């Protein structure tokens, strides 16, 4: 049985870190309010010349280095993003070009904060279907560019960055002891559109638009949706919260993360939290968090790792990986 095994990882952040205190001069807010409600202490904001594609390229190069591979070894690039460099062509094709690749194929995936789990599930399908052997799965965002910097209810929450994994086809036994993606569960429900969306687009306003959010409404649905897909992943594999070595959630907000872990009975020592460092980087948050926990030695080969996310749409999903 073919499995999609993680062979390398990488991350990239803009040069400029912006602490909560700095935002006190932008909107009426405070470090205390932001930390208490969200757990965020700082975020990185892209400067001149830094774009979704440049950050994605840097993360991809770091992942290739870790995997001891070159762009020549890759046959598919999937970029999860809601903040592409251009409406088209896809940022994935832009990154393919930046990597000097004219072979293989590349496309973007748009599922907002759930983008990375959607991209992982999709890459796994291409690998298991035999259409790709090595896939660069990238989550890259520059949300700072779609924020309304006069709206304190949203602008303090988000940041920019990118992370990448290299997935590679490998033979497995078909058991949960196999390394690689074990199961993926994706969901969406468009009835929630108005709770989290961007108020512009090429086919409506002809503008890029700004992010709009009813924070309380998002919060109300988040924990239930997240725990549903995680429970589906446990059920599909016959595993439980006790078998899990790490939960690596989308980093939107400390209270959502803690609430989900508590409901699932996952102790906080097994939860990777980086929202304090990066803010909410949408599709980039999971690979950025993975990068931190792999660099500091928490996540090791053989560990059972649950990735989960929920975001605009709503979209939500979970991917269970034996590292
Ligand atoms: N600084 C200071 N005060 C603020 C700020 C701010 N940045 N933003 C809002 N306030 C004020 C509000 O105006 C309100 O004041 P009022 O009582 O005088 O009207 C007060 O704080 C409370 O506002 P609420 O919106 O009720 O605050 P809440 O406790 O719900 O926290 C938050 C807001 C953090 C957005 C919360 O609802 C939340 O975490 N929601 C989840 C949203 C989220 O994480 N979205 C990320 C994208 S989706 C995803 O990735 C899953």
UniProtKB/TrEMBL annotation:
Q: Output the InterPro entries linked to this UniProt entry.
A: ACP_syn_III_C (IPR013747), ACP_syn_III_N (IPR013751), FabH (IPR004655), Thiolase-like (IPR016039)
Domain of life of the native organism: Bacteria
Where in the cell?
Cytoplasm
Q: Which reaction does it catalyse?
A: malonyl-[ACP] + acetyl-CoA + H(+) = 3-oxobutanoyl-[ACP] + CO2 + CoA
- The Beta-ketoacyl-[acyl-carrier-protein] synthase III N-terminal domain is annotated at 107-190
Pathway annotation from the record: Lipid metabolism; fatty acid biosynthesis
Q: Which Pfam families match?
A: ACP_syn_III (PF08545), ACP_syn_III_C (PF08541)
Residues at the catalytic site: 113, 250, 280
Residues of the Beta-ketoacyl-[acyl-carrier-protein] synthase III C-terminal domain? 235-323
List the EC numbers from the record. Answer: 2.3.1.180
**Keywords tagged on the record:** Acyltransferase, Cytoplasm, Fatty acid biosynthesis, Fatty acid metabolism, Lipid biosynthesis, Lipid metabolism, Multifunctional enzyme, Transferase
Key word Lipid metabolism present in the record? yes
What segment(s) does the record annotate as region ACP-binding? 251-255
Keyword S-adenosyl-L-methionine carried by entry: no
Q: What does this protein do?
A: Catalyzes the condensation reaction of fatty acid synthesis by the addition to an acyl acceptor of two carbons from malonyl-ACP. Catalyzes the first condensation reaction which initiates fatty acid synthesis and may therefore play a role in governing the total rate of fatty acid production. Possesses both acetoacetyl-ACP synthase and acetyl transacylase activities. Its substrate specificity determines the biosynthesis of branched-chain and/or straight-chain of fatty acids.
Q: Which NCBIfam families match?
A: fabH, PRK09352.1
Tell me its family: Belongs to the thiolase-like superfamily. FabH family.
> Anything noted about its domains?
The last Arg residue of the ACP-binding site is essential for the weak association between ACP/AcpP and FabH.
**Oligomeric and partner information:** Homodimer.
> Which protein are we looking at?
Beta-ketoacyl-[acyl-carrier-protein] synthase III
- According to its UniProt entry, this protein's organism is Pseudorhizobium halotolerans
